[in-house]
Amino acid sequence: MPHDTSAPPQREASTPSELAEAVKALGRATVLVVGDAMMDRYVYGHVGRISPEAPVPVLSVEREVALPGGAGNVVRNLTALGSAVAFVSVVGDDAAGSDLTGLIGGQPRVEPWLLVQGGRLTTVKTRFLAAGQHMLRTDHEQPSPIHPRLADRMVKIASDAVAVTTVLVLSDYRKGVLAGDIPGRLIQAARAAGRRVVVDPKGGDHGRFAGADLIIPEPEELSHATGLPVRDEASTAEAGRVLMAAHGFGAVLVPRGAEGLTLVRPEGVLHFRAEANEVHDPAGGGDAVVAVVSAALASGLSLEAAARLASLALGIVSRKSGIALARADELLEGLTPGRSALRKLVSLPLAVEVAERWRHRGWRVGFLHAAEPCPTAVTEQARRWCDRLMVGVEREDEGAVLLAERPEVDLITVCGAPGEEMLRLLRPDIMVSCASDEALERILGEWGGELRPSP
């Protein structure tokens, strides 16, 4: 672990080129992670028959995969960014604990401090999958607090490691490693060393993390902690302000899946859209956000710039299946002009399929036909009227690519003029048009859609 005696000066990055340079700097970040280490096992196979012993499917096992989970997955995400990581946790004196220690220690640029508690079970989550679907999950765990003497030793090791890293991450999965006053003692040590603290909570009393610089709760977590509904940007911001004030947090960052991230700070609220038209699998998205934000802060980025990179990482992970990672080269690819636009340009048949999936998720689908250069104000207003905005163009040219680069545009399709057949295929809930048209209104009315005037 490289020695870092002072935090780097904070710097902004907002343009794609500035953010790309920031991604390259993540490899110089040093982060300390303290939290619950787990083993994630995946058993893959196929089902071809029902058991004669009971009416249950028989899984014919084809392969098994074991990966570090919990706080260990935050470590995996940090190493995928090239960051150097010190990891402090506790495992049991069992085979799973030994295997997990080997998996974590075998990663590049990781310094593991995995203490062993006699008689304790290492947390193991085993998922059984067939045809890409989860059939069953089994958990072996002992979530009771770790032994007090072991806790003292762990806090001592972590307090020493704080001095040679730049950001402390507390990754709490409520499996006993961060129980009681342990978080408060670690935050105090980080404060004494002038280090920033990022918290990834999973239920329980958030007051244990009082004074942390940043807390990153999932929407359900935030709602449970505040007793407030968390449904959209406005309610997320209000709940974030309540949580921040209740425990003296410096800021609250909420990953909201395909909706992106909401950052709540004393100076105001910012929303960042994730570059993901659809969410194939949200698993692991929170860990990716924690890792990218922590590495970005450790490399000297401002919190706003760190959140921008985290929103990009959230989109990358959400497009993958299973517990996925967002790697540094993928972040750079996403920041390359035109790359995200190419993913948005699709054929009309695929656009019809995507629109149907959006509706199944309960999202209102908007459609805007852009026969000529379209002002940004028009697409921005159209996006405010719907949950997902599709733009139809007459040809795939430079103008279409420029439209696709706009964050408020979710999909571009080449469709020619918006005829009756095309509208019945797409079935938009909202259509934005520069002029009223009784024929369009009649067609849209067949499925409850409406026509709105272009600004």
Describe the structure.
The chain has helices at residues 16-25, 71-80, 95-105, 148-162, 182-193, 219-226, 233-247, 285-298, 303-318, 328-334, 339-344, 348-360, 376-384, 398-404, 420-426, 438-445, and strands at 30-35, 37-50, 57-70, 84-92, 110-117, 124-130, 133-140, 167-171, 196-200, 214-215, 252-255, 261-265, 268-272, 345-346, 365-369, 388-393, 411-414, 430-433, 450-453. It is of the alpha/beta class and 455 residues long. The strands form four sheets. It has a six-stranded parallel β-sheet, sandwiched between helices. Helix 5 links the parallel strand 8 and strand 9. Helix 2 (71-80) crosses helix 8 (285-298), helix 6 packs across helix 7 (233-247) and helix 8 (285-298) runs antiparallel to helix 9 (303-318). The longest helix is centred in the last third of the chain and has 16 residues, at 303-318.
In summary, what is this structure?
The mean pLDDT is 89.
